[in-house]
Design brief:
The protein is α/β, with parallel strands linked by helices. Helices cover 33% and strands 21% of the residues. It contains 6 helices and 7 strands, in the order ββααβαβαβαββα.
Length: 151
């Protein structure tokens, strides 16, 4: 996870880490409109490990220095995912990680402003991967990519 891994290793990008604010439709119905960065700032923000992600998002949205609130900081991404789906607030969600929840309507994206556009999820292999490693890597990428397309 992150920027392209070390140049001393072979890597295969599986999918993007691009993140956008998302919440459950129930939270959106309860909270009302969340179309602008100011409206999102007034929402219950859920944080993944630190508050830095939201600071970066607000900076990207033209609101550098915005108060990112006192919402909970989750040490475990799975618990954050459960909280946002359950309707506890708005989280910065990696769109590709949550593609099924978005497709089903369990989550809705509330802004097109994205962070982590330069990051991705990579499968990292030895610098000179064997034919078996390459075969596995190609198969694995196909399993986790959307519609079997290359990321």
């Amino acid at each position: 996870l992150g920027a392209d891994p070390s140049p001393t290793a072979a890597s295969l990008k599986l999918f993007s880490r691009m993140s956008r604010p998302a919440c459950s439709p129930h939270y959106l119905a309860r909270k009302g409109r969340l179309g602008s960065p100011a409206e999102i700032a007034a929402a219950d923000l859920l944080h993944d490990e630190t508050r830095q992600g939201w600071r970066e998002w607000f900076s990207q949205a033209g609101m550098a220095g915005a108060d990112v609130g006192t919402g909970p900081v989750f040490a475990d991404f799975n618990i954050l995912a459960t909280a946002v789906i359950a309707g506890h607030g708005v989280a910065l969600c990696p769109i590709e990680v949550f593609r099924e929840e978005l497709r089903r309507g369990d989550l809705v994206v509330v802004s097109d402003i994205a962070t982590d556009t330069d990051k991705g999820y990579y499968l990292t292999m030895s610098a000179q991967p064997s034919a078996a490693e390459i075969t596995f890597a190609d198969w694995f990428r196909d399993q986790v990519s959307t519609n079997g397309e290359e990321a």
